[in-house]
């Protein structure tokens, strides 16, 4: 519970989840990020309706004023009666507090172009806006304009949605993403920027030299207070730590995106599929990778932006192609990874068979653990089917793989279908069934048929929201005397160690037999 609302002084709040699956997917939010964004946007003062972000904005304004009382009561007096205020887009609770001042002017975006304000220099004492910058094509230009119209000693205060563990990325070239209601998509709701921890660089670009950050319940409530360029430079963070537990939400599927991998340089940021890094990812420029990845996109009829995940899968398959044995994928769905592998290896020339297993109807409820059932896996499975991510028949998969001869599609639930895998040796095994018991059953059943050095790829071993799969696999591989390499992509990797030669075998034993003869 909040100590007090900085707008009205109230101490009771209401809470609601406001994010919807499509937006979570488009922004690739982790469960933790979903939690604090829902808290930011969905937690409101019961008395005045101000959200957490609005409370942070009010605190920023009050800090500039040098006031400690709630904003509503401060503005009810005469001291600030002559304040000239520009409200650029409205903020519940804050806007209503200022609305009675004679010098208050509401200038809603997009009717007012914040990138080119038709307002004279030095007009306002205070300019504020809340969660508006992400909708503006050139946010730095908008900030410059807001600073330009400030009087000496004036202040610009604002909030913007920030994912604190990332760097800012533009949505240029990506499918449109909107804020607001999930079923309305007006042009003023379209998102041009997804802000990260480097949002302060926009302020520097706009010429700001005095920046104050106000915090209410980090990382949910952040607000910036910025002086006109030329005023005394400071940088100050004022935080009011307010405990507010954030419940984890289940991970959402990545959004359908149709763009092909862009050329990357060593300085480019990789930021997708819950992995953010500046480490080299020029593999995305490799022609063979691009062809294979494009074939995976064709199979799925969408691009889930799994480049690094697929890169790991292609490396594993290429390594396995040097070993004896067939390939097996348990959990093929639309065939993104397996299609990419078959394209990369020119599959029919390998002389191998690729066994492709799936229910082609989501997770079989007979084969889930009690822990997964309690965690809501069936509801998640239902939503995933409804979203179209899971196939509900094998027809599309059969059509997708028709160009290759050497494959066998096996329809049904693991472990029931494992005996249809006729491979005597297996060089590559991919396991991606989003459920612990069938995944463990597949590894246990096929372990003895894995070639020495065979590669086992666990798609969701370390991925957030799949804890039971990790625990089950850890217990399973312990029996085989091996471990799983946890990867930052969320995958797990196992290399089957060579079998120990039995007594009486190997080159030394053969030499001894020769000498005895």
TrEMBL record:
PANTHER family: MACROCIN O-METHYLTRANSFERASE (PTHR40036). This is Methyltransferase domain-containing protein. GO terms for molecular function: methyltransferase activity. Coiled coil: none annotated. It comes from the Bacteria. The keyword Transferase applies. The keyword Transferase applies. InterPro entries: Methyltransf_11, SAM-dependent_MTases_sf, TylF_MeTrfase. One of its GO terms (biological process) is methylation. Keywords: Methyltransferase, Transferase. Pfam families: Methyltransf_11, TylF. Residues 108-158 form the Methyltransferase type domain. SUPFAM superfamilies: S-adenosyl-L-methionine-dependent methyltransferases.
